[in-house]
Amino acid sequence: MATRKRDIPEINAGSMADIAFLLLVFFLVTTTMDIPNGLQVALPPISEEPPEDSKQKKREVLEVLVNASDQLLVEGAPMTIDKLMQKTVDHLTNEGVNPTLSTTSTKAIVSLKNDRGTSYDMYVQVYNELTAAYNKVRDDYSMQEYGKIYTKLDPARDKEKIKIVKKKFPKKLSEAEPVSIGGDK
Amino acid sequence: MAKFKKDGGRATPAINTSALPDIVFMLLFFFMVATKMRDKEMKVKTKLPSASEVEKLEKKSRLHYIFVGPPINATYGNTPRVQLNDAFASIDDIQEYITVENSKKDEKEVPYMTTSLKADVTVKMGVITDIKQELRKVNALKLSYTAAKVARKE
Asked: What was the ipTM of the complex prediction?
């Protein structure tokens, strides 16, 4: 093909693409792209002592039950999952207004109970709604106090602010010791 | 051959492919940077649930993995099984697994170890509850329900 004989013959780079393709395919096959995302949970340590009597605190507790058929019972009444977040937000921000809900946000507790037959999908959804409620009240409070939502507070600079918001709305999401309610499915 | 070509007038010039390696290398570098090595062979199917409030797990080295789901190979049936490392395991093996994995790490890192639970949507909570109890027994209290991130629907 070369017509001009004086030139140094060009190095054939045609197979460079092949080599690069080979490497590309290798990386496509052996690597994954998923960055692990997850709902963070802090499990309670196992303690031998029986749980303290919670009779007088009944008002502070928002009871959420999920049965083996993935049905939701909140404070003894059936509920659909899309209303759960608002209900939780109401409970956390009640400040003693509604006599059935919490007295102050610092004492408010959300108790989640599930059956052994509940599907993991439903459980994650419920947990997600409850987490969303906590995130929302924290965001709202932070917005009102500091003009910035909670998740946008800088952990280095706004350490104090984060502490205050956390203290105002502590994440007291308790999960009951495993029991079987409503039977296996 | 060459003679034949010379006689047959001008052929259409070849398409210039000298930029092709550059393009492929660009793709290659993208994949090298954006992905990471697959290090575990999946033995169980894990179709993740979706959630909106997920947080990114910061350090990959500070993770234990537990997989739960129906086996990919149908000959093992479709009852959900637990997978630790590259093999099927039972619930009772979790304590040992966590202890062994922790002993490989720096002592200072142990309190920050998070267990990443990858479970299939079809799994029942009975298994998950058992796993949680086992984790509590070995004091591995940081747990993460791995989920796909979706936008909140209003």
From this structure: 0.77
